[in-house]
């Protein structure tokens, strides 16, 4: 199992111009909606706190599992292999679909 730093497929997807520009557009729309509609803002804030709490709870619950899996090279190798395959698939998609390299507005 190689010990060098692996490229992360999720980070690569998030860095694609089409994905990052879509996320930015959604963030702008969400923020402007909250600013324009006070009632919606209060509902959104309650939702955001719930999501943060659920995320923290999930991380807390997963910590023992992650600790148990960390020393197991086989598991790490399987994750590295899956990530490598996903990166190769992404390479293929980027080659076949050039539009992924452009922001949404283009």
From TrEMBL:
Domain of life: Eukaryota
Pfam families xrefs: Perilipin
Keywords linked to the UniProt accession: Lipid droplet
Subcellular location, record wording: Lipid droplet
Cellular component aspect of the GO annotation: lipid droplet
Alphabetical GO biological process terms: lipid metabolic process
Major localization class: other
Keyword presence, Metal-binding: no
Family the entry assigns: Belongs to the perilipin family.
PANTHER family registered for this protein in UniProt: PERILIPIN-1
Protein name per Swiss-Prot or TrEMBL: PLIN1 protein
Lineage of source species: Eukaryota, Metazoa, Chordata, Craniata, Vertebrata
